[in-house]
């Protein structure tokens, strides 16, 4: 199996290369620190699998359809917005996903599965996605119950989906943190959601937050 990896951090690329290189019949044939280099490697080398950092994948303007290579994303479980970004990536067509801390045997299993055309995930990540699917089901359906939102409320939703905390939102908008907290509480009640994740899911389903890797080719 021939693999291309992409991550902005040298030590992460070295670790991935080492872990995957320990597997029988696995060869890392290229590595990149940015999305353009990754694209060139994929198109030039036609590897069996591409492994890319979730954050860098969001910089890909054209859809995954430009690749004939299955893509596995590498997510940081400590990033607040990671779960929403994962949902977007899955909708865009990635074949698998793992955490940075995924044990080597699970990492290899996910990459091998992707190479065979089978979707696979780190076990902890899979459980988190199942939980998130439950939250999506519980979140208000914007198509069934339209809610009129102000531009400020839509901005709040975009900032939440980006993973910003109340303190960071307050700093961004020049407001008191207590004002943001009260505004979000009122917004959650208006949307009939119970937490930030459900609010971010609502924003995604309502089109307030654009899908990752849409059909743009520019």
According to DSSP, the number of beta strands is 6
How many H/I helical runs? 10
Provide the succession of SSEs: EHEHEHEHEHEHHHHH
Radius of gyration, Cα only, in angstroms?
19 Å
β-strand percent reads 5-15%
Distance between the termini: 31 Å
Record the strand order, biggest sheet: 2-1-3-4-5-6
Instruction: Enumerate the spans where pLDDT stays under 50 for 5 or more consecutive residues.
Output: 211-218
Structural class: alpha/beta
Helix content: 40-55%
- Shape type: elongated
What is the residue-averaged pLDDT?
80
Largest sheet: 6 strands, parallel
Summarize the structure.
The chain has helices spanning 10-21, 35-45, 54-57, 82-92, 104-115, 123-138, 151-161, 166-173, 177-191, 196-205, and strands at residues 2-6, 27-32, 49-53, 71-75, 96-99, 120-121. The protein is α/β, with parallel strands linked by helices and 218 residues long.
Question: Secondary-structure map with pairings?
Answer:
Elements: E1 2-6, H1 10-21, E2 27-32, H2 35-45, E3 49-53, H3 54-57, E4 71-75, H4 82-92, E5 96-99, H5 104-115, E6 120-121, H6 123-138, H7 151-161, H8 166-173, H9 177-191, H10 196-205
Descriptors:
single chain, 218 residues, alpha/beta, six-stranded parallel β-sheet, elongated
Descriptive notes:
This protein has 218 residues and is α/β, with parallel strands linked by helices. Helices cover 50% and strands 12% of the residues. It has a 6-stranded parallel β-sheet, sandwiched between helices. Strand 3, helix 3 (54-57) and strand 4 form a beta-alpha-beta unit. Helix 8 packs across helix 9 (177-191). The longest helix is centred in the middle third of the chain and has 16 residues, at 123-138. The protein is elongated, with a radius of gyration of 19 Å.
